[in-house]
Amino acid sequence: MVEAQSWTTRRSSNPRLETSVDIPTTPTGEVRYGTSNNIFAALSITSVVSPTILTALIIASWYLSNIGVLLLNKYLLSFYGFRYPIFLTMLHMISCTFYSLIAIRWFQIVPFQQISSRKQFFKIFALSAIFCFSVVCGNTSLRYLPVSFNQAIGATTPFFTAIFAFLITCKKESAEVYFALMPVVFGIVLASNSEPLFHLFGFLMCVGSTAGRALKSVVQGLLLTSDSEKLHSMNLLLYMAPMAAAILLPFTLYIEGNVLGKTLEKAKSDSFMVFLLIGNATVAYLVNLTNFLVTKHTSALTLQVLGNAKAAVAAVVSVMIFKNPVTAMGISGFGVTIMGVVLYSEARKRSKVTVH
């Protein structure tokens, strides 16, 4: 168990919180919702900005929000001395709840959907619990591992997804798909053997976080299968965020002590901390909002490709800012992993075309 009261930041380590909910794929095109009379339609943004420029701005916002939450979390946890990662994650979930209500009920970016049954409620609660497990493991790992290495391990999510899909649903992929996963694992082996700041416990926690994200995506597809239970990604975030906050509350009280009282006491003497926490939580929600918008204006496959590139960008930015040492072998391992993920995506796409 990690004791938060003795939480210290080692030199060259890069604490960062993983706050982005694994939003399910969303088909593109306005045909999903038809024309709506929401506030965005009234503004007629596309009549002022060309679709190409609008899409580029949305992608840029997605990258900036991801990198922004990385920098803010690093500053809060390391330089500013706010050493309560679980509590900070809980604030992010509260923020996602608040902003999701505004986005859906006021701006009406997507139609509001209600939970239809108690059974569906418990299914969403189960997904929230898996998500919390992934976040806690990821946050713990970042005490011991640099962000660049964390991003490399996170790129192996397709490998764990394929494993859980086979174990839980007995779904078998083609031989080409499984073959494409080999460089994903091989790249991490190379990166691990040459990582200057390798830490076994941090590595295991990061693998647990990656496996948790993969498990959530598989369980989500298994639980929310019927048309009556399917929720739009933004509605799912609206319900998962408060559940995740409720799950994290006892953990932050048990592990991090009287964190709320300490935060309020520090806020009285330093109002800038309030600004930092609000800004940090807001950017955390923007990660999820821009994730949805990128999928809406491009495609799920484009989002996956951009996500692979984002992992590389985040790794480069972390090295530039946090100055953690890297080796040529480590860079090569990360590159092999990303190449494997790209091959896996292409193999999955060809496999689906063959089936149809």
TrEMBL record:
One Gene Ontology term of the molecular function aspect: antiporter activity
Keywords carried by this UniProt record: Membrane, Transmembrane, Transmembrane helix
Domain (Sugar phosphate transporter): residue spans on this chain: 56-345
One Pfam family per UniProt: TPT
Protein's name according to its UniProt entry: Sugar phosphate transporter domain-containing protein
Start and end residues of each stretch annotated as Disordered: 1-20
InterPro entries: EmrE-like, Sugar_P_trans_dom, TPT_transporter
Domain of life of the native organism: Eukaryota
Spans through the membrane: 39-64, 84-104, 124-142, 148-168, 175-191, 197-215, 236-255, 275-294, 301-322, 328-345
Membrane topology: Multi-pass membrane protein
Record bears the keyword Membrane: yes
UniProt entry tagged with the keyword Transmembrane: yes
UniProt GO cellular component terms: Golgi apparatus; membrane
Alphabetized SUPFAM superfamilies for the sequence: Multidrug resistance efflux transporter EmrE
GO biological process: transmembrane transport
Compartment(s) where it occurs, according to its Swiss-Prot or TrEMBL record: Membrane
